[in-house]
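Let's do one together. I've listed all components of the complex below, 508 residues spread over two lines.
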Amino acid sequence: MTIHVGALERYEAGTSLLHKADARVKLPVTVAYIFAVTLTPVGHWPALGLMAAPLPLAVASGGLSPLLVLRRSALALPFVLAAVPLVFTKEGETLFTLPPFGWHASREGLLAVSTILAKSWLSVTAAVVLTATTSAVELVRALRSLAMPRILVATVSFMYRYIFVIGEEALRLMRARESRSAQMEGHSSGGTAWWRAGILGNMVGSLFLRSYERGERVYAAMQARGYDGEPRFLWNQPWRAAQIALAVLAALYAAGIQVYARY
Amino acid sequence: MPAIEARTAVRTAVEITDLHFAYPDGVKALRGVNLTIAEGEKVALLGRNGAGKSTFLMHLNGVLRGAGAIRIMGRPLSEDSMRYVRAQVGLVFEHPDDQLFSPTVLDDVAYGPLYMGLPKEEVLDRARRALQQVGMVGFEERMPHRLSLGQKRRVAIATVLSMRPPILALDEPTSGLDPAARRDLINLLRELPQTMIVSTHDILMVRDLLPRTIVMDEGRVVADGDTRVILSDADLLESHGLGAS
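Okay, and this is what the predicted structure of the assembly comes out as:
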């Protein structure tokens, strides 16, 4: 029972330049970066290398532990599995043959998969750096002031507000189950795996019901205070020229790489 | 042999030595708790919010594991003995909604005995008997989250009674109840023969039901003794956040 809900928090408090930078700049720069990475031509390693270069800089200037960033970016790996069959399905020069099925691995396929791996890893790492140096509240504010539809902003902001509440609730349910999972001398305990799976299903179901009912109550309480669907924030930082200049520079850099990779 | 011993001498039900616990966020909830409770004792656990009462109760059956030694019915609590110890301590949580996770009342009351691997007939027998004890016969097929708070509390108690534990640990059993439901619950607790540790802010219930009182503050036991003596010590109660006036 070492689960705790704080583990869901992604923000690493700090005072670095990257932490202090305006989320309204960081967010679009990150999104633009991910687009640029995605658009880089398959197998163009020099261009991908140039795209990767700013990441270690960002990690260092954000005062983040490289290990932490690496660990979180491992999130990309399971998705890459879906791309692996490309090695065998793409037509091209045969590298080797998998004996039992007679599948041919092609050079082009391998190139495609390794490019996907590199691109998704770079994209996830950029997002990891963003979420580690920007608090959720700031991100939500930035989304709204960048004209993201308010229903989406409200959804994200409530998810962040209540994920901890629901996480705590799940934790208490599990503790209660744990505390009644006992054994008597001379009896084997635990029941069948099928039965335990059923119990878990019941717990998930009851958590869903309760979250749903809590949602209704929260909404009623918000309406009682005049909620009209628009999240309101107390203040917005003024835009600063230096930060905008930096964003433009970043955009030029990414665009430059794209031009270089193509011509 | 143990049976004879039990009849001739008062056994120790709970023995805690130098128990420390900190939550993952670094909050030190227990700072060296020492405590012995004999079989059959009815003990109140008083203390302000955040004094460590619930954290302490959750150590009695190993839901939380701190540093220090815990013996339940003479058996040291360890990774190996955990599941046996859980059959000895029936822990009733403050919020019945945490405790009741099954679709029907009967499923929930049957969970403990089913997990212990008892045959179906005995499980049903124990579940019915437990519901009888708490006066909830006839609610077997109801959904727990549709019951009143008083009913939920009773069902929550039944879910541990069906495991037949010699020790009951109850976390604020009367909080939030209306006067009639509270009175019924106190009468129910009075009839249960188990060794009982009750964390509560309900001073009237303590006076009524629990002859021994332990006061906790900042993760330590700060007073332990006869309930009448402790409840008449206004200075003590005041200095640990329990004075009403």
